[in-house]
Amino acid sequence: MVECFKGMLEEWKVSRESLCAMTTDNGSNMKRAFQDSTNFSSVWLSCFGHNLNLAISKALKVPKVDSAIRACRHLVQGFNRSWKKKRELRHQQAKLALP
């Protein structure tokens, strides 16, 4: 991994000393390659977007969250499939001055 990255830096004409930080996913190979101070003098940071995606994916697997999402989908499908429910919803929204 490190050799590949060194090759990219050479191709782009970027010196390793000019780097202040490295951002990658949390793969063990990436951690090992970039946390080892002998390869690069810069700081390794895990990608926030990748961490957020992992956290959300894990949260969606929690049984209570999964159940709540299924209930919401069922509710939305009920309104999407029934013109009578849509009409009643619009009526109630107008009555309560809601968008």
From TrEMBL:
Organism ancestry: Eukaryota, Metazoa, Chordata, Craniata, Vertebrata
Domain of life: Eukaryota
Protein name, as recorded: Uncharacterized protein
